[in-house]
Structure formats: C-alpha cells, structure tokens
Amino acid sequence: MKLKSEMLTHFMDGSQVMVSTDKDVFSGIVTSNKTAAFIVGCLKKETTPEAIKQAMFDKYDAPMEVISNDVDDVISKLRSIGVIEE
Predict the structure, then answer these.
(1) Beta-carbon neighbour count of residue 60 at 10 Å?
(2) What is the sign of the dihedral through the CA atoms of 8, 19, 5 and 85?
(3) Using CA atoms, how far apart are residues 18 and 1, in angstroms rounded to an integer?
(4) CB under 8 Å to 48, separation ≥6 — which residues?
(5) For residue range 5-51, what is the model confidence (pLDDT) as tens digits?
(6) What is the pLDDT, as a whole number, of residue 2?
(7) 17 near 5, Cβ under 8 Å?
(8) What is the value of pTM for the model shown?
(9) Using CA atoms, how far apart are residues 64 and 60, in angstroms rounded to an integer?
(10) Residue 12 has what pLDDT?
(11) Nearest residue to 28 via CA among 44, 8, 12, 48
C-alpha cells in the first residue's frame, strides 16, 4: 500500500498539510500531527502497516502497543478518505 500519487504534502507551522492535485481523489485539506506525518512519510513508497510500525518503533521511544494503535488509526482514516492505493 502507498499514498496516492495525487497527494502532495508540505510542512507548515509544525504540522503537515496534505492536498490532492485531483479533486476526484480527494477534495479538501488534511492536517497531520508529527505522528501522522511520519506515517504519511512512510506511505510515500510501497510499504506495509507492519513496516511502518517497526520504523516508528526504531525511531521513537514508545511502546509497540501505542505505536500499533496509532498506525492502525491513521491508516484507517486515510483509507476512509480514499487516499491510499492498496
């Protein structure tokens, strides 16, 4: 899975902003906190939820259970707005 190529990301004022270049993919703006921005960054190339969880675990000092829940939640939200290619 990965983020659809129509999605552009930009960091602004400490958060990530994501917009689509194609209104048929998504019409709106998504703002992300640091955790979600890391996950979106991982999704810029083909990956799996497990690989994202491991990358976060390697980078951040947090329990795997918390990381797993965060990754699953962000991926679920991104799927619900249709911006992930499966």
Answers:
(1) 14
(2) positive
(3) 18
(4) 1
(5) 999 999 888 889 999 999 888 999 999 999 999 999 999 999 999 99
(6) 97
(7) no
(8) 0.91
(9) 10
(10) 84
(11) 8
- Over residues 45-58, the mean pLDDT reads 98
DSSP secondary structure letters along 13-50: TTEEEEEES-TTT--SEEEE-HHHHHHHHHTTSS--HH
Tokens 């991982």 sit at which residue? 42
- Would you say 33 and 26 are in contact if contact means Cβ atoms under 8 Å apart? no
Question: Distance between terminal CA atoms of the chain?
Answer: 4
- Please return the burial class of 70, using the count of CB atoms within 10 Å of its CB with bins 0-12, 13-18 and 19+: buried
Q: In what order do the strands lie in the sheet with 15-20?
A: 7-12, 15-20, 29-32
d(CA 68, CA 86): 19
